[in-house]
Amino acid sequence: MQVDVYGDTLCALVSATALASTGNQVLLHLPEGAHAEQLMRGECPFREPGLADLMTEQQQAGRLLLTSLEAAPQVLGGVIWLALNPDMLAEAQALIGALPERCTRRWLVVNQSTFAVGSSELLQQALLECEAPVADPGAVVSLPDLLIEGNALQSFMRADSWLLGADANWARQLVTELLRPFNRRRDAIMPMRPREAEFTKLAITGMLATRLSYMNDMANLADSLDVDIEQVRQGMGADRRIGDAYLYPGCGFGGLSFSRDVMSLASTLQGSGMAAQLLDEVLNINERQKEVLFRKLWRHYGTNLRGRKVALWGIAFKPESSRINNAPALKLIEALWAQGVEVHVHDPRALGSLAQWAGEREDLVLHQDPYAAVAGADALMLVTEWKAYWSPDLTRLHELMATPLLLDGRNVWDPEFMKQNGFAYYGIGRR
């Protein structure tokens, strides 16, 4: 098939690349900006396993072509795939309104953009706004973005589930055919109405955020009760009614899409006249949790932090990402700066993003080597659980640090083992 994909989001790039890899002719329409410039130079703006190589392969094969957002679609295709940023609903409506022969041919619009609940219906109206009645109208379906950042390509090509919101049977069948190469192990497509698919996407994110914030609250309580939250976590996860997913306490969650989806769900609840008390509290807990390592450091040094040097390992909002959107490290760094702390940072991929966010500062030093970052440090904070940080050279670490103090924001280190090796250790609810 011929498919026109619109957007420069991770979802747009993954969808376009995956669809091209199964033989479709894909035209990727890019909004102006840094991502478009990088892609036109042959660079992939997202560090996702396998994505850059597969994109290059599909472009060389001629199945994936790049163009501007305003360029006309492949008229023979009739499939429009929207994976735009959440604030581009007006642009999406304009794109649909400008489709050639919109009122005389049957277009299929697949909406993967995370717009507000009911947006697919608005796009359907834009598709059907014709002076004369259309005998065979087009359709807009909702196929929410359920990608897992850090494993985005595989989470599309081997999806656990697809939420397919469609009112027209022919549209549902056509999307099912497009997804057939990625849907062979078992039927992972869940048919529903467009509004239900949009709401389910937000509800999933809200539930995951709630579990994370609940565990962070329990970890903070465990600190005051002299309880090891790791034992509690395993006990809870063993109960089949609960399971062990998203039960890992830490120093808060980040990510642009994740945080924005939770806020969108809260806004939807408030807009309907319902109080979003639970989600508001989830977001409040998460913001407080982003400073949990700072509070532990502050208490350890008796509130006297001015002039100290603190090292951070990991500032990306999650491993395998170069993005720092709403990352816990940002609020933590700001709290350290406010107390006159000199911050030294290492991250495998996100240093460029941090430099752009912070600008030139004497109290921020970026390091390409993690051990260079800890030299002379009064504390080391592990913020993002990159695998490279899980088994450090403890002898070297101890020799380099001015004070062997570890603050483990992801509970990846064993408290007893660290203490046996001469470190003072603080985790999240760990003993």
TrEMBL record:
SUPFAM superfamilies: 6-phosphogluconate dehydrogenase C-terminal domain-like (SSF48179), NAD(P)-binding Rossmann-fold domains (SSF51735), UDP-glucose/GDP-mannose dehydrogenase C-terminal domain (SSF52413)
Gene Ontology MF term list: NAD binding; UDP-glucose 6-dehydrogenase activity
Reactions mediated catalytically: UDP-alpha-D-glucose + 2 NAD(+) + H2O = UDP-alpha-D-glucuronate + 2 NADH + 3 H(+)
Source domain of life: Bacteria
Domain UDP-glucose/GDP-mannose dehydrogenase C-terminal: 311-415
BP terms from Gene Ontology: polysaccharide biosynthetic process; UDP-glucuronate biosynthetic process
Binding site for NAD(+): 114, 149
UniProt record similarity statement: Belongs to the UDP-glucose/GDP-mannose dehydrogenase family.
Protein name: UDP-glucose 6-dehydrogenase
Species this protein is from: Halopseudomonas oceani
Species lineage: Bacteria, Pseudomonadati, Pseudomonadota, Gammaproteobacteria, Pseudomonadales
